[in-house]
Design brief:
With 251 residues, this protein is an alpha+beta fold. Helices cover 47% and strands 18% of the residues. It contains eleven helices and eight strands. Strand 6 and strand 7 form a beta hairpin.
Length: 251
């Protein structure tokens, strides 16, 4: 019974994520084909979501679409997490002024997870989905996060990373320390050709006002664009993002 409940919960979330990805009405056949769910169990699950008011079936062709009740479930999260209603508009302004993809990430174990993404406005822009994770070691956002942590924490994370299948890179501790020291001094971190080829990123930290959690803002795009506009991007980030004077005090 417990396994069935967990499976149903996971499937319900996957259905809602599918709507977020497609951003258009979908019928039961389309959902079943895309997600590979049995039509019988899917029918029961969709009826439950409709009854609870999270999906609407008002279309004559059997199409379904999320309701505003679903949006109200999470409209409080940015304010609760970030402690301010002004940050998301600032991130939008950062995307519009730089034209590059802007991400907001948090540390999760040995990775940095994207919790908010705004795709760049250039014809060729870095595509990032919310929920995707990037390595903490070696990336611009990861190095910037490590720069906000005490050396004992960064060493512990590095050692765990080496033990989890990266033993051949165990000698890169000195290189990582230099990158962290530079990020602490400069207030930003940059990296190129790490996560994806021909892609660069610049990262800076902010602190959530609600719980003092450190978040990392990244601006990423094609190498040559980030290189050419790196100074302008950094100036724009400093001008828009909330100051975090104590982000560089770790030692």
């Amino acid at each position: 019974m417990a396994d069935n409940l967990v499976k149903s919960a996971a499937r319900a979330l996957e259905i809602l994520e599918l709507f977020a990805e497609r951003r258009e009405p979908l019928n039961a056949t389309q959902i079943a084909t895309t997600l590979g769910y049995p039509k019988s169990s899917l029918s029961v699950l969709l009826k439950s979501l409709i009854t609870q008011g999270y999906l609407s079936s008002s279309r004559g062709d059997g199409g379904l679409f999320p309701t505003l009740k679903l949006t109200r479930l999470g409209d409080w999260v940015p304010t609760a997490l970030l402690g301010s209603e002004t940050l998301l508009p600032l991130l939008l302004a950062l995307r519009d002024r730089t034209g590059e993809t802007v991400t907001l990430t948090i540390p999760v174990d040995l990775n940095m997870r994207c919790i908010y993404a705004l795709i760049g406005t250039h014809p060729i822009a870095l595509q990032v989905e919310e929920g995707v994770s990037f390595p903490t070691i070696g990336t611009a956002i990861g190095t910037m996060f490590l720069a906000t942590q005490p050396d004992t924490v960064t060493r512990s994370l590095f050692d765990r990373w080496v033990k989890q299948g990266h033993a051949r890179e165990s000698g890169k501790w000195d290189e990582l320390q230099k990158a962290i020291a530079s990020a602490r001094t400069d207030g930003y971190s940059s990296a190129y050709d790490i996560v994806l080829p021909d892609t660069g990123a610049i990262a800076m930290p902010i602190r959530a006002a609600s719980n003092k959690e450190i978040l990392i803002v990244g601006v990423a795009g094609l190498n040559y664009r980030i290189h050419q506009a790196s100074e302008a991007i950094r100036e724009t980030m400093r001008a828009l993002l909330p100051p975090m004077e104590d982000a560089q005090d770790a030692s």
